[in-house]
Protein: NAD(P)-binding protein
Organism: Artomyces pyxidatus
Amino acid sequence: MADPNAKVWLITGASSGLGLALLMRAVSRGDYVLASARDPSRFDPIFSTLCTGQRARVHVLHLNVASPFSEIKEAVDGAVRVWGRIDCLVNNAGIGAVGASEEQGAEGMLHVMHTNFFGVLNVTNATLPHMRARRDGTVVIIGSRGAYCNEFMGIASYAAAKAAVHSYAETLSVELRPFNIRVLLVIPGTFDTAINRPPKLALHLHADYDAARADMDVMLGQLAGMPGKGDPLRGMDVVVDVVKGEGKAGEVMRGGGKWPLWLVLGEDAIRDVKERLARMAEALDAWQEVGSGLTPET
């Protein structure tokens, strides 16, 4: 059984990117990690960087979030038996794909949505019975600033899936409140991970988009080499702080701050979310007279 004073984390997509950074920070702070990936062999080089005590607190789990729910549930049920509980589920696994929405079509959109939205839904639903039984737990969902900064070519499927995840997390937070289960929607900006180099996905090419595709290639090249990206380890340290009530997060909570449904990470993400909120407020102010007074006339 796990130390009752430590957290047991289940992290999907834990072999790379933000998931790996979170694994490293959690075990370095004395917690246990159920680390899932589609290919468990990817953890072999990672283990070589951990000390013996840390390796003993990591259990590798073969889990593809795009699998049928029955397979996901079997994997999660088995994971619970390792240390007797899951204190914090982190829905991190996801895929990126860029291309014009018309060229991706419904098939491309469903491909991304299947992993980035329905994968989150299925893993969460497989974990919730265990948390509800204990009347305790935290569900972390890794969203994206792309849900707010999405007015450019190529991001439609990824941004739509993340926007769906955001809305799901917000409703889920209300549904789970009676069971003492918290929901944290993490909205990262640009961190130094492979998600900055997403593959192209175009199933129905149209010549009209040739110029836009060329511009998209230039933009992606600039993004890959952009300086000043966030440090994944520092970003995930903040997530651990919030979940455990430590560090700056602990200071805010002890000072009367409420649990944050939204946790925006990085100056670029903070800027983009604020800009979107300001633009929406401006549109509401300018057009509220047009959209008001629509009740039946007497």
User: Anything to note?
Assistant: DSSP finds ten helices and seven strands in the chain. The mean pLDDT is 92. The radius of gyration is 20 Å. The chain has one domain: 8-289.
